[in-house]
Amino acid sequence: MDARLLEILVCPICKGPLDYRKPVQELICRPCRLAYPVRDDIPIMLEDEARKLTAEEIEQLR
């Protein structure tokens, strides 16, 4: 995924920063506890497409 794109992308809900998890192809919003999928290097920034992070995943991010 393009590094320049990662610099400008924010969570569509809270407008906060996102963390890119390359191995699982997801953009993570810690405050909203959501993971947005990245498909074919295209971030899918729709709330309906995001999955909620589990408590275990949130702990791993700390």
From TrEMBL:
InterPro entries: Trm112-like (IPR005651). It comes from the Bacteria. Signal peptide: none annotated. One of its GO terms (cellular component) is cytosol. Coiled coil: none annotated. Belongs to the UPF0434 family. This is UPF0434 protein GTOL_11744. It comes from Georgfuchsia toluolica. The lineage of its organism: Bacteria, Pseudomonadati, Pseudomonadota, Betaproteobacteria, Nitrosomonadales.
